[in-house]
Amino acid sequence: MKSLSKFALLSIGFITLVGSQVLAEETNYDAIADSMVNGSLAIQPGELVVIGGSPAEVDLMAALQVAVSKAGGQPLITLNIPEANKRAVMETPIEHMSQLPVQGLFLYKMTDVFINVSSVQEPGLFADVPEERLASFRQAGVPLTRVFNNMRYRSATLGQTGGIPTGAYAESVGADPAELQEIFWQAVAVTPGELIPTASKIVSLMKPDAEIRITSKAGTDLTLKVDHTPARINVGRTSDVQAPTGSANVWLPAGEAYGTVRDASGTLVVPWTSFRGVPIENLKMTFKNGEVTKMSADSNQAKLEEYFAASSSKLKFASVIDFGLNPQSRSPKGTNYYSWEMGGMLTLGLGGNLWAGGDNDSDGTLAFHLPGTTVSIGGKNVVKNGELEL
Question: Which of 123, 133, 239, 326 is most buried (most C-beta within 10 Å)?
């Protein structure tokens, strides 16, 4: 999802911005692989399964290859090399960067299941890449975006915001690496049965045109409307994803109810967020008729402005709302570690939302984690001061 964001689901070409670092030696790769292959994805004999990751995840990818083979699937390993990705972005002539990524289309047409594992070693690896170069790659894939999102495959991604915790990522959010690892794996272990009841209650409230109100002590006061796309849940099994068309995707640690939104109006205040590893503090956005009309920040505002300027105008529209449900996932006190699945966490997405069933096909996407918010749907409180009310 997700940081790899959920918005960066398609890891085609050079836009998979993940890093690498060796996972904890005591991690039981075989158990993780078994859970993903047989629990999350229920892989069947004869299915083509693409397993992707960086050099740091080779041992886990190997365990996944074995588990897929034992289930009767046909595994194919793809390797992402972050440093090479950056060199390619920086050194490839612009005229070549705008080519349609047809290799991704062929791969997705053949594949039944995608498994992605990721970790972040260099949070700021792409921070100094000129925005126009990254935009060229993003925009080259736009014609295929709807094609990808309407293909009937299943996917499971291990690693939400920040990926599988590493020392470098922990340092970037002011956290202890060992503590993040412990929180991460405890959250991964939460079962679908623990998540489904609350997820179902939230989804039942997210009826088309229902009003969502978001407030916070930081100054957020924002209203939106639920769009007409049915809301979805992520409880860690693709069989629980009710997607009438397109792919069935889950992200681990699991624990989310999410849907598409429109007509945002009011003020959004984000005390802290990170964009390509660069911290942005006290971000304030004003919305009118669904669109960002004004923006300010105490630090690195220019980075976001460059991104907006280089992206489709549809990036300015609020498009996704996500409620975190996982009782074991949390933000250690005094840190900036936030992730989609954390119990009581609200995440607001801007721009492309085809992955969630929406119709915003912007090449750009943004996601803001909003701890400590109070949220109501149709007048009923769902979250109060960052705590689930259901």
Answer: 326
Are 206 and 375 spatial neighbours (Cβ–Cβ below 8 Å)? no
Q: What would the DSSP string read from start to end of 109-125?
A: HH-SEEEEE-B-S-TTT
Q: What is the pLDDT of residue 26?
A: 64
pLDDT tens per residue, range 168-183: 999 999 999 999 999 9
pTM metric for this prediction: 0.92
Find all residues with CB under 8 Å of 141, minimum gap 6, and list them: 10, 12, 13, 15, 100, 101, 104, 363
End-to-end CA distance of the chain: 24
pLDDT for 12: 30
Kindly state the average pLDDT of the residues 77-103: 92
H or E element: which one contains 182? helix 177-188
Residue 303 burial (CB count, 10 A)? 16
pLDDT score at 265: 98
One-letter amino acid for residue 269 of the chain? V
Report the percent of the chain where pLDDT is more than 70: 93
Q: Read off the pLDDT of each residue in 333-337 and give the average, rounded to a whole number.
A: 97
Distance of CA 375 to the CA centre of its chain: 21
CATH H-level superfamily of 6-388: Thermophilic metalloprotease (M29) (3.40.1830.10)
CA distances from 227 to 46, 157, 161, 244 (A): 38, 26, 25, 15
Looking at this protein, which amino acid is placed at residue 232?
R
| pLDDT tens digits, one per residue of 214-227 | 999 999 999 999 99
What is the DSSP secondary structure assignment for residue 367, as one 8-state letter? E
Length in residues, the chain:
390
CB-CB neighbours of 118 under 10 Å: 29
Instruction: Take residue 1 and report the two structure tokens written for it.
Output: 């999802």
- Give the domain ranges of the chain: 6-388
Q: Which amino acid is at 79?
A: L
In the predicted model, what is the mean pLDDT of residues 315-337? 98
Quote the pLDDT of residue 102: 86
* Cα pseudo-dihedral 140, 279, 316, 18, rounded to 10: 30
How big is the CA angle at 40 (ends 34 and 44), to the nearest 5 degrees?
75
Q: CA-CA distance, 334 to 2, in Å (whole number)?
A: 22
Q: Which of the two residues, 227 and 107, has the higher pLDDT score?
A: 227
